[in-house]
Structures are given as C-alpha cells and as structure tokens.
Design a protein that fits this description.
The chain is α+β, with helices and mostly antiparallel strands. The longest helix is centred in the first third of the chain and has 13 residues, at about 15-25. The chain has four helices and six strands. The protein has one domain.
Length: about 110
C-alpha cells in the first residue's frame, strides 16, 4: 500500500497482529531498550518496526521490537531526521566503546 509520502502500514492486518503478539511474548512484555541498554525493567506497551515501513521494513517478528512509550517516541523522532534510520550510537561507559543500541538489542535476543 503506497501513499504520496511512501508506504503506509496496515495495523489491522492479521500477520502484523499475530507477529506483534509473538514479539510481546519474546520480550516478556518489557521494553527491550530499557532492559538491554539501561538495565531497567519497564513495561513495554508499544510495538516498533526496527526497520521502519517507510524504509522498507516488514511485519516479520524479527523486525518487531517492544518498547516503552518514551523509547518508541525517541526512535521515531530520530527516524524523522534525514539519513537516520534508528537510534544513534551511544557510548558504553564501562568500556568506553561506542555501540549501536539496536545491534545490542538484537545481540541480546540471540543470547536468550
Ligand atoms: Zn524503554
């Protein structure tokens, strides 16, 4: 489905709803950013497309993540900036290394 501003997303599609449920189960209902990046336990209520629909992302469970309202809003704001496809890198204060939050969230998934 395409509009003048790019593809639009069908939030009512059965595939999306089924995969969103699976993503919610995988995340145990918690915000994946809060948990992996900040070490906090926060209820995640929102389902985010890791690669946004506007950038060609799909409804695959692998492309979905559960976020709290704050982190979903933050990511969406970054994505509205030119050339930005998600969160910018953050410095890990323990190691001094700059890492990409999205990569760390995905790496944490494969460990569990
Ligand atoms: Zn969060």
């Amino acid at each position: 489905m395409w509009s003048k501003t790019g593809p639009t997303h069908n939030y009512a599609s059965s595939t999306y709803r089924r995969n969103r449920k699976a993503a919610m189960r995988r995340a145990k209902g918690l915000c994946e950013y809060c948990k992996v990046i900040e070490g906090r336990i926060t209820a995640g209520a929102e389902c985010d497309h890791i690669t946004s629909i506007a950038n060609g992302g799909t409804d695959d469970t692998d492309n979905l993540q559960i976020l709290c309202g704050e982190h979903h809003w933050q990511k969406t704001c970054f994505e509205k900036q030119k050339g930005q496809t998600g969160w910018p890198d953050v410095v890990d204060w323990d190691t001094g290394w700059s890492t990409n939050p999205q990569e760390r969230i995905l790496a944490a998934r494969s460990k569990s």
